[in-house]
Amino acid sequence: MPNGHAQSYCDVVDALAAVLATAGVRGTIAATLNAADPWGFDLDDIPGAVFHAVTEGAAWLCMPGRPDIRLLPGDVVLLPTGTAHVLAGAPGASTVPFDRAAAERALATGEELHVGCGEPQTRILCASYQQDPAITLPLLALLPDPLHIPATGASTTLDTTLRLLAQEISRPAPGSAAVLDRIVDILFVQVLRAWLTAADPASQGPSWLGALTDPVAGPALAALHTRPGTDWTVASLAAATGVSRATLARRFLATVGDTPAAHLTRWRMDLAAQRLRDSDDTVGAIARSLGYTSEYAFNRAFTRDRGIAPGRYRARSRGRLTTLPEGETAG
């Protein structure tokens, strides 16, 4: 692999890792379905993203106004916004509402959720994902809906992870719930990798996620995401990326859909919101770590972005916004 391509790939990895570490996309196993024809499930009113992986047999994914998709063994599909859909043995099959309570009871005992009569032919692993609400930088919403990765396009690591998930579900042991959730988190990263590698994310329209593979915007995004406390300017970012200021400004706006300064500010505010909620760092310490030379400047930027002062945001996010006066910024 040429050095330029290797560096570009490293930039993608660095930027994606930084966002994934902060975005807090976490997965939970929802069910293991074991189905015998004829069968069908209605799945609606689902918060977050939904993931299905067919390990045996075949199924149909049906969504209103979309072409039906046949899912074969090894296929995975992600519905990033939890769009209402049907899983069935055949298009047009009779369906029943998905029983979440029954699925949870089955998982707790290491069993599967059975549907239909007779010998099961199809086995499906189902999971759900949620993104940290403090993070406004979109991630799930930027993905195709649905994101279908056929077994023929899946990596060997994705296939191995699915097998590991199936084994852990079938043989529950102490700590299985924690292990399953971590495996599901790994699956999400592998699905993102497969999409970034096989598809043309830029065809989805301007977005930071699609721009990760751009030879100009990708390295710039990596710099902003991994070093948010640096006093970045278009000139310094262009120098770090190895292009002219005009090229960077033009390419960044075209692929990301925003300017480097606006993107950096949004990223800094997301990091600040998370630290205000989850850490005991003072507002001043958070401001300095994110490149603000004064607490006042940070307070103005945060209030403009979130509509509330940092101290009040911290109190509200911890459920104790009761006595802080307007404008209070205590850490």
Written account of the structure:
This protein is an alpha+beta fold and 331 residues long. It folds into 2 domains: 24-199, Regulatory protein AraC (Jelly Rolls), CATH 2.60.120; 201-331, Homeodomain-like (Arc Repressor Mutant, subunit A), CATH 1.10.10. The chain is 45% helix and 16% strand. The protein is built from 12 helices and 11 strands. The strands form 2 sheets. Strands 9-1-10-3-6-11 form a 6-stranded mixed β-sheet. The protein has a 5-stranded mixed β-sheet with strand order 5-4-7-2-8, with no helix packed on it. It starts with a helix and ends in a 14-residue tail after the last helix.
Task: Set down the secondary structure blueprint.
Layout: H1 3-23, E1 26-35, E2 40-43, E3 49-56, E4 59-62, E5 69-71, E6 76-79, E7 85-88, E8 96-97, H2 100-108, E9 113-115, E10 122-130, E11 147-149, H3 156-170, H4 176-198, H5 208-211, H6 217-226, H7 234-241, H8 245-256, H9 260-278, H10 283-289, H11 295-306, H12 310-317
Parallel strand pairs: 1-9, 2-8
Antiparallel strand pairs: 1-10, 2-7, 3-6, 3-10, 4-5, 4-7, 6-11
Helix pairs in contact: 1-6, 3-4, 6-7, 6-9, 7-8, 9-11
